[in-house]
Write a structure and sequence with these properties.
The structure is a single chain. This protein is an alpha+beta fold. Helix 1 packs across helix 11. It contains eleven helices and twelve strands.
Amino acid sequence: MPRVSVHQAQEVADAALARAGVPADNAAVQRDVLLEAELRGFASHGLLRLPRLIERIRNGVADPLATGAHQWRSHAFLSVDGERGLGPVVAMRALAAAGDRAKSQGVALAAISNSNHIGMLAYYAEHCVSLGQSVIALTTSEALVHPWGGRRAMIGTNPIAIGVPTGGEPFVMDTATSVVAMGRIHDHANRGEPIPPDWALDEEGNPTTDPERAKHGAIAPFGGAKGFALGLAFELLVSSLTGAALGTGVRGTLDSTEVCNKGDVFIIIDGPAGRLVDYLDAIRAEQPAAGFEAVRIPGERGRASRRTTLERGLSVADEVWNRIIDMAA
């Protein structure tokens, strides 16, 4: 696995996107989302997604120019047709509109359809918090998770992110409702590393440590029945607000040929930010249990990884880096 500087990764990603016809402004947003995931240790949502994205542009199922068409269904409900645009580009424009409306309405919701994969939700949560607003972000995916007690993939990984201003370092929680994202299984496959036995089932519904078999099977819901219930609830909510497809009908985030038909929802809340940092400091100061070095707040591990990776550079799987180099050349 080559270790590359962040600057080098930016240049190569920008060159690959430019060759695919992505304007510089749109490319910068798309590249930033991918690199932030790499910096925070989430390779599943990082550069490994860039080759597929470029293939989607070349195949006509992703439009590098589109930024989304906006329609206000009410004073605080923004409906966005993503026009097959790049997910981060469409999402950031929707956040700007909904965030501005939340200043006058107190709260605003953006429901996005017909857009591409938006990547790590924490990116958008941190953006909203930096503007002094709280946010709840939801998105759906292909059917990758088996229902509790089932053996076949029937619902999405359906992550949620919540961002809250604290008066100090922002609180940002970002988690899938599956044990892992499918991208992490793809990352293990690219690196030739086995996965833990409780992550996934193979095509026949049996537990597996082989990431290649897991890619064609089903991921487990986190926390058993509770994770399954949350994932299903989020999928139903997002679909009802965006008109997105459900379950095995969802396409377009793991392939290069299908129009993406998942949905994204952002709920932005404007208002006075409470001073929450003292409470979070008290949690951090708690005596850790046996086997733990410290009590950490969600998001802190990713920020620590970001600082380290900025100094040391990115560790990218050979297969991923070579493909991006070829696309940029």
